[in-house]
Amino acid sequence: MTAPRLAVPVTAGGDVVGALVLQRSAAGRAFTPAESDVTAALAQQAGLAIERLRSRATTELLLAGLHLTDERRTDDVPAAADPPVTVRRLLGTARTVLGMELAFLSRISGGEQQFALVEADGTAPRLAEGLTVPTTDGYCELMLSGAVPASVPDVPAHPVLGAMPVTEAIGAGAYCGVPVRLPDGALYGTLCGLSSAPTEPPTPAQLDALRIVAGLIGQGLADHHEQVRTRSQARAELDAVVHGGGRTVALQPIVTLADARTVGYEALSRFARPDGSAVSPLEIFAEAARLGRTPDVELTAARSAVELLPALPPGIYLSINFAPDTVLDPRTAELLGGSSLDRLVIELTEHEAISDYGAVREALAPLRSGGLRLAIDDTGAGFASLTHLTQLAPDIIKLDVAFVRHVKDDPACRAAARAVATYAAEVGATLVAEGIETAAQAAILRELGAEHGQGYYFGRPKPASPTRERAAGASPGR
Q: Are residues 14 and 118 in the same domain?
């Protein structure tokens, strides 16, 4: 006699990484469809757990290689949503297990029951997601107290539930419910099913399956709560750095390669933690992107930079770095609109993808018509290759340091620099070579067609000193 066996593949990242296998003795009964559904749900959760572990391992290896392990331990988490998507999927599994028209997850607290999630077909009893009622008006409090059983297959005929006003109000014919508890044992609420007509009682296997799904939901809710808590803490730590007293602005000169005359400054943010220790701007902006806070952080930094503009020498422009999302933020136009636009440049990095060039052009149009200039940063090394250049028609093209660093010895770098310089000349844009560190690099880049340059050779990053700059009219460095 062949032993009953159930095998469900476990997938992670689209790949089959194993299988969840259940097997009974040779004399055991076959697995039911409800048990198959629960096993499939468990396999799905296993796959998600493997994906999280893989992501965590990759992140830790990367951070260890960058020597950042002590500074950033949090993993990427999805934006806060209550409840999480995985819980909604499990609710669908619960409805399938019970074979009922409607399943709901409720939160019970302070004498109230809120229907957090509702999964239903078109014939289900009437129950609105988000509805909050007193616990005394529903069935679940009675089920939790033991006053009614977990399953009531004929609600109208039940001496207690049949007499309750809610039965007629929602059109309930059958009910089944189990408690949902968090891993620490605390009660979250209930996982229940409803049908509009009386049904056959669920089998013991179906009730066991429902309890398993309820346990998975409790774990999923706890995991999500921890993710939200961690994310909230990370946002608070980011705000403490960005809005704290340790944030400053540094300026780096942009000069003509012909005579090293300063024509503009790039504004660069510098950050320190509340304890005074310095933190890399790259880390701050990467964290802002992870938390969906890029526009907030960039606009805070830009506001401080724009305040320096009146103190700079006449005719000198100020260049500010913005991501595409920041350009599209309405606060950007509000911030820059009150300044001397003809002395401002927005630098848009080529490393950031742009999904809608038309929207970016539209957001920039009124600012550019007022005199603002657009620069494409990191040209040649970024995500969009020449697409940013052709779609946005920048006034300034900044040649990435990767081509500048080896321009003296690498023919390929010289060819790339010459090609970008030719393109800039064809479209009437100014070419700025970034990362110049030697006189030889400056001379070669000038020969190749670069008009302006920027880098340590002309000035290192230094804190802005507006009073001195106004008096001296000289570069403060980066």
A: no
List the chain residues with pLDDT less than 70. 1, 13, 34, 37-38, 41, 45, 47-49, 51-83, 350-351, 380-385, 465-478
Global pTM reads 0.64
The tokens for 334 are 């509000």
Domain ranges, residue 140: 78-231
Straight-line distance from the first to the last Cα atom of the chain, in angstroms, rounded to the nearest whole number: 80
Is residue 317 in some structural domain?
Answer: yes
Residue 214 located in a structural domain: yes
Q: How far apart are CA 382 and CA 369, in angstroms?
A: 27
The DSSP code for 252 is: E
Which tens digit of pLDDT belongs to each residue from 305-364? 999 999 999 999 999 999 999 999 999 999 998 789 999 999 997 667 788 999 999 999
Contact (CB, 8 A) for 430 and 451: yes
Non-local (6+) Cβ contacts of 452 within 8 A are: 254, 255, 256, 257, 263, 430, 431, 432, 433
| pLDDT, position 404 | 93
Contacts of 148 (CB under 8 A, 6+ apart): 139, 142, 158, 160, 161
Judge if 111 and 214 occupy the same domain: yes
The Cα–Cα gap between 287 and 348 comes to 19
CA nearest to 321, candidates 292, 351, 291, 342: 351
For β-strands 430-433 and 452-453, DSSP reports them as: parallel
Residue 382, pLDDT score: 55
Whichever domain contains 117, its CATH number is 3.30.450.40
Phi, psi of 313 (to 5 degrees): -60, 150
